[in-house]
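[[Per-residue structure]]
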Amino acid sequence: MLDEPRSGDLIAFMPPGISRPWLKRAIGNPGDANSMLSGQLYINGSAVEEPYVAIENNALPGDVQERVIPNGMLFVLGDNRDRSRDSRHFGFIPIENVIGKVTGT
């Protein structure tokens, strides 16, 4: 992959233990601290606007304690947070698992 994903990019990647690619959004960059409280995402202590997440898809509490993204890893979340299986469940993913960025959405 030529460009490493940046926070907010929609990416295709191979999730752990799954044999087909998934699409999720990269949240934060390596070295960033992220957390979520009552559906609000915070990166390095600042609230993040996420226009791609509809309020009705982010109604369930999905708290995530603050964690720092290690070098070479990504934290990914689905845009449909209430029904998404993502880094809240399986943790960080290695950047080398990224197939590419998704464009045109």
